[in-house]
C-alpha cells in the first residue's frame, strides 16, 4: 500500500514561533520521572585521581590564546606542556 504524500504546506521541521516557545515545558515536567531520569547522564566517580590540581600564573596573552581554542583548552595546554618536556 502506498503512503499518501504530505500536504503541500507540510514542513517536517518547522521553525518555532513565539507561541511555540511560550507553550514549551521542560522534559522533567512532561515526562514520567523514571523516563526523565534516563535523559540525565552523570559521570561516574573517578577510580583514582589521574591529574593534580595546581595554581599557575600565566601571562594573559598565553591564557587567552588557549581559551580562544574553545572547550578542552586545558587538555590542549596540558599536551603542549607535555610536548615541551618541561
Short structural summary:
Helix content is 43%, strand content 0%. With 86 residues, it is mainly alpha-helical.
Number of strands: 0
**Could you give a short account of the major beta sheet?**
none
Mean pLDDT: 89
- Please report the distance between the alpha carbons of the first and last residues: 70 Å
- What fraction, in percent, of the residue positions are helical? 40-55%
Low-confidence stretches: none
Number of helices: 5
Assess the beta-strand content as a share of residues: under 5%
The topology string of helices and strands comes to HHHHH
Overall 3D geometry?
elongated
| Structural class based on helices, strands and sheet pairing | mainly alpha
Instruction: Give the C-alpha Rg.
Output: 24 Å
How would you sum up this structure, described in words?
The chain has a domain at 18-42 and 56-84. The chain starts with 17 loop residues before the first helix and ends with a helix. It has 5 helices and no strands. It has 86 residues and is mainly alpha-helical. It is elongated. It has helices at residues 18-23, 27-30, 33-39, 60-67, 73-84. The model has no long low-confidence stretch (mean pLDDT 89).
Characteristics of this structure?
single chain, 86 residues, mainly alpha
Write the layout of secondary structure elements.
Layout: H1 18-23, H2 27-30, H3 33-39, H4 60-67, H5 73-84
Amino acid at each position: 500500500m502506498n503512503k499518501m504524500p504530505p500536504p503541500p504546506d507540510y514542513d517536517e521541521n518547522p521553525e518555532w514561533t513565539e507561541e511555540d516557545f511560550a507553550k514549551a515545558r521542560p522534559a522533567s515536567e512532561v515526562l514520567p520521572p523514571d523516563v526523565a531520569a534516563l535523559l540525565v547522564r552523570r559521570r561516574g566517580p573517578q577510580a583514582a585521581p589521574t591529574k593534580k590540581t595546581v595554581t599557575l600564573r600565566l601571562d594573559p596573552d598565553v591564557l587567552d590564546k588557549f581559551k580562544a581554542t574553545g572547550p578542552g583548552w586545558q587538555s590542549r595546554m596540558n599536551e603542549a606542556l607535555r610536548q615541551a618536556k618541561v
